[in-house]
Amino acid sequence: MADTHKAGAFDIRNIIGLLIGSYGLILLLMGIFADPETDKTGGVNANLWAGLALLVVGVVFIAWSRLRPIYVPEDVEEVRDDPTRPAPKKRRRAGH
Amino acid sequence: MSVVEAAQAVGTAVPGMVPAADTLIDAKPVDYLILVVYFGFVLGIGLLARRSVSDSVDFFLSGRSLPAWVTGLAFISANLGAVEIMGMSANGAQFGVPTVHYFWVGAIPAMLFLGVVMMPFYYGSKVRSVPEFMLRRFGTGAHLFNAISFAVAQLLIAGVNLFLLGTIVHALLGWPLWLALIVAAVIVLSYITLGGLSAAIYNEVLQFFVIVASLLPLTLIGLHRVGGWDGLKQQLAEVATSAPASAAVPPAEQQLNSWPGQALVGFESPFWAVVGIVFGLGFVQSFGYWTTNFVEVQRAMASESISAARKTPIIGAFPKMFVPFITILPGMIAAVLVTEIVQLKQGESPPGGASGDGVAYNDSLLYLMRDLLPNGLLGLAITGLLAAFMAGMAANISAFNTVSSYDLWERYIRRDRSDDYYLRIGRIATVAATFIAIFTALVASNFGNIMDYLQTLFGFFNAPLFATFILGMFWKRMTPTAGWAGLVSGTASAIIVAILAKDSLGSLSLGVIPIGGQGAAFVAASTAFVVDILVSVAVTMVTEPKPVSELKGLVYSETPKEDLVDPEEASFPWFRRTIPLAIIALVMTIALNLAF
Predict the structure, then answer these.
(1) In this predicted model, what pLDDT tens digit does every residue of B440-491 receive, in sequence order?
(2) Is the pLDDT confidence value at A21 over 90?
(3) Given this structure, which CATH class describes domain B38-264+315-433+571-595?
(4) What is the pLDDT of residues B196-255, one digit of tens each?
(5) CB contact under 8 A, A40 and B55
(6) Helices H / strands E in chain A, number of each
(7) What is the DSSP letter of B448?
(8) What are the Cα distances from residue B343, in Å, to A27, A86, B227, B350, B360?
(9) Residues near B260 by Cβ (< 8 Å), separated by ≥ 6?
(10) First vs last Cα of chain B: how many Å apart?
């Protein structure tokens, strides 16, 4: 694997894990310290349980990317932008 | 409402510019924190991706070399916007279970067809957009018409997204709708110009998880509150029987069984309801949408091989199958739990609503969130909705930008200028489109159920396109003249049907044909499809076809077969091959249809 390296922070599983995990933490703290508003949820501490579930999902994604990292080749053709999506436009027709 | 009336409404609303005191949703700092975290992530990804070329290559490639579940989720998520979330929950509240046809008849079969039949052709022919195909297959006439109709469709659908975005701003802050629309438009514009979307696939996958993370608890809490599925059935039946006849609520057994689905299409006869759903929705609308929608198709094209491209829509079909349980079900729960929606269903017109001018079925989900979610989860739900509509509108605006500056301006108005010139035109088009979307959003706000409107639009734009596309692809004799003549007559016939129907176009519709709602949209789409085919065949008979040598890669029979298969596919285990996966998806869909 001389000409490859790990995707690391760019691995989407790390990004998903980080976002979902931090949401899990926020909801968990809300579930522990804030009013559970059980009149709305019908008696369940929804923030607490949703927070726990999200935390688990987040950890699973990060663990997955640690255990089976993705390797990216060093030399690749530049990927063309998707013309139907907003993005800073790359120069078209360079030789024009 | 016409543009003039809309402008007058805006004018008279100016004195009330002070934000209203009552808001539909009572958000706390923690909810805003969750929102800020999301946009921090999205903008952070955009900045990271732009920091250096090598990083951004990594970035896209790591997306590419990921397992196919990522492209599959992005494929679903690119479509999981306004239509799915608000439209399906509105439909669920109004009609109940028959809404599942939009998934199990109106999406999965077309997605499987796309993966099995169409994707190898797209991949092999190197066609990258529908206008491009039209230009190469049929020449200028079909290209010009298709580009204009595509640009108009993007503006109208951007209006739908903006309207929904505006309703959320209104629900959060209590501002009048016109002000909320302008604020939402400014937010979207800054979102596009900041370039925070340069990694669309990443954002779409993130968005998918946020939406599921908020809608799943909402559904579970809702089911808990109504006493499970049995409790929901019972309460739905009570609402249906206690409703006055004038409210025209579908009887409970029609709301709880997917077939024959008279309530959804608005036909009395069960036979014609089934025909409408299978032909109108299942074939014309849905095949038209999924096979010609290159915003979706390009998700799949980004993958590494034909085999991966084919599997993308098929893998996407699996999560898609279960999306109704977190969109339609909350709508149905709202129709028994939320006081305002129950009143609406009983034929009353309760004041309030996300738009501020009365409750509509579109508001079902927002009201349910208000009634069921504690602060925290509420913020997560708001974030998911805002992210979906914003990304949806940004995609519409950007697609409009591409078509208007390259397909229309460069080709037909000013040729051979510098790249900078067309970039400037593109920027002007973006700002103009955002501004126009404020007005198309006011048009969209006239539809109590946004799904009626969207299906009508799809009938105008997708159905004739699909007919011409599929005919031009499989029939090499079809002539350039037939290309544009078919498109024009197909679109015109759909518009005529919509005008003759009961309420497809609001006050513009005459009511000569006694059907309305989504049934009328299916009829308009089917008419457009049939008229397009007939006109194309008739015109082909009397005009000159293109020489066969110019059709390579554009017509199925003229495309080399080795361009259509992946040599490595046969060596994969069965669960990584296209056809076995498609068969499993099909069997599961049939099982779901039988179960409900």
Answers:
(1) 998 888 877 777 888 888 888 888 888 998 888 888 888 988 889 999 999 9
(2) yes
(3) mainly alpha
(4) 444 566 777 888 888 889 899 999 999 998 888 888 888 888 877 777 766 667 777 777
(5) no
(6) 3, 2
(7) S
(8) 33, 42, 21, 7, 11
(9) B270, B271, B273, B274, B277
(10) 39
Q: Pick from B474, B232, B410: which is nearest to B333 by CA?
A: B232
CB contact under 8 A, A76 and B397: no
Angle (nearest 5°) at CA B66 between B63 and B69:
105
Report yes or no: B138 and B484 within 8 Å, Cβ to Cβ.
yes
Of B90, B137, B24, nearest to B360 by C-alpha is B90
Confidence of residue A22 (pLDDT cuts 50, 70, 90): very high
Sign for the pseudo-dihedral over CA of A9, A13, A19, A24: negative
Task: Give per-residue pLDDT as tens, B249-289.
Answer: 777 777 777 677 676 766 677 777 777 777 777 777 778 78
Contact status, residue B341 vs residue B363, Cβ threshold 8 Å: yes
* Percent with pLDDT over 90 in chain B: 8
CA-based nearest residue to B131, from B155, B148, B111, B114:
B148
Residues 51 through 80 of chain A touching chain B, CB cutoff 8 Å: 51, 54, 57, 70-73, 76, 78-79
Cα–Cα distance measured from residue B534 to residue B281, given in angstroms and rounded to the nearest whole number:
20
Is the distance from CB of B83 to CB of B451 less than 8 angstroms?
Answer: yes
Output the six-digit token pair for B218. 């909402």
Cβ-defined contact of B372 to A30 (cutoff 8 Å): no
Q: Where are the domains of chain B?
A: 38-264+315-433+571-595
The tokens describing B182, both together, are: 């302008």
User: Which residues neighbour B336 within 8 Å (Cβ) at sequence distance 6 or greater?
Assistant: B226, B232, B235, B236, B238, B239, B342
Distance from C-alpha of B470 to C-alpha of B461, rounded to nearest angstrom: 15
The closest of A16, A91, A5 to A57, measured between CA atoms, is A16
Q: What is the DSSP code string of B513-570?
A: SS--HHHHHHHHHHHHHHHHHHHHHHHHHHSPPPPGGGGTTTSGGGS-GGGSS-TTGG
CA distance B296 to B129: 11
CB contacts, 8 Å: A88 with chain B: 50, 195, 198
Closest CA to B447 of B1, B98, B81: B1
Candidates A54, A78, A88; nearest CB to B213:
A54
* Number of inter-chain CB pairs under 8 A, A vs B: 156
Mean pLDDT for the stretch of residues B130-155: 87
Give the CA angle between residues B78, B81, B85 to the nearest 5°: 135
Q: Are B305 and B65 in contact (CB under 8 A)?
A: no
What does the angle CA B521 – CA B527 – CA B531 come to, to the nearest 5 degrees? 150
Q: Are B524 and B499 in contact (CB under 8 A)?
A: no
On chain A, the residues whose CB falls within 8 A of the CB of B33 are 26
Q: Give the nearest partner residue to B395 out of A57, A81, A84, using CB atoms.
A: A84
Helix H segments across B403-479?
419-444, 450-474
Phi, psi of A71, deg, nearest 5:
-105, 135
